[in-house]
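INFO worker-7 received task bundle
INFO bundle size: 2
INFO processing item 0
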Amino acid sequence: MARVLIAGCGDVGTALGVALAADGDQVLGLRRHPECLPAPIIPVRGDLATGEGLAAAAAGVTALVYAASADGFTDDAYRAAYVDGLGRVLDALRGARAPLERVLFTSSTAVYAQSDGGAVDETSPTAPSGFSGRRLLEAEALLLGSGFPASVLRLAGIYGPGRRRLIDEVRSGTATVPDGLSIYTNRIHVADCAGAIRHLLRLPGSRADGLWLGVDDEPCERAVVLDWLADRMDVARPRRVAATGAGARQRGGNKRCSNARLVSSGYAFRYPTFREGYAEVIAALGLASRPA
């Protein structure tokens, strides 16, 4: 039985924790206010910003999943959440002499700066222009140089229950599409975020080491996704607006991320494209008026 610590146990961590516990693992969910976590996740009060509670949580841990999120979209918030927080947990694990077999860090495709719609995989260069990507790369380097068996899962845009931004934008009529531009976006359902992490934790030996892209099977033009959502909910399709400047080309990213390494390792997506995932979310909200 593994003893898994999920540091920053939010919606992805909770879904993961429930699945791991069902497998028979002992799962500890660490967050500032852990009382909201469902059984059988063991709630652990801890603060990644101050280090409070980390030493006790680290005892006997065989796997760490670092799935924290920043408190805000600022450089300071990203450094605190991803670099400083991760460093504190790794120090706590060293101090506790935890028998670690795997540390997995959830990063983001924001580490890629490609904006020409080209294909991206784990070997593609990373040169992000924004602070978010730079801080995530800093955290990745910290983990990969830690000496622990390490995996980095770079997740694309996460959607699913409770993550309905695109649905709300389409329904409200605020979603727009730059006219005449092919802007590719990448996404992954929250259930597949948890599923991919669980899969990597189960890979034996060094097979899970290194970088992984957590995206579904179909990088897709933003316009196609938004139009599909509108048709599915029987509302007006998003307005086409004049495309001006590089900002229009980069809105939402413009790259086609590949999940080939993850799939070839044996992971099967529950929601292979946005259609299956969003269809379920829309149906659960009672908003569907047309078949998928």
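INFO item 0 finished
INFO processing item 1
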Amino acid sequence: PELTKRRAGAFVSLKKHGTLRGCIGTTAPAQPTLAEEIICNAVSACSEDPRFSPVRKDELEELTYSVDVLSEPEAAQEKDLDVHRYGVIVSSGRKRGLLLPDLAGVDSVQQQISIAKKKGGIAENERVQLERFEVVRHT
């Protein structure tokens, strides 16, 4: 019932032998149901992530998948963040970057913000507005 009666943003991540192979998501719902949100983002993660070539059919058996269902983002300050509990959205004008929580190798809030800035094309010394969100991760 959660998948067909609820709406939420969701990220779908694909990994091949433990290495990221594609990841696409939405911070707010764009589809009528969470099920449709996940399906659309899964298709995009395997075919439209600009960092990777599209997934080939012969790779499918080597992939693992995870789905992160996002809570509604809320305004935050750096002191309100926790890299294991919260994801972060950084914004500067029209530029935005996002990093999911509890990622291997991301050990500090400053590192989390820095990576999110880079993903959003935001200069390291540029001031940003912060938002945080929690996820329910399905692997």
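INFO item 1 finished
INFO post-check item 1: The mean pLDDT is 96.
INFO post-check item 1: The radius of gyration is 15 Å.
INFO worker-7 idle
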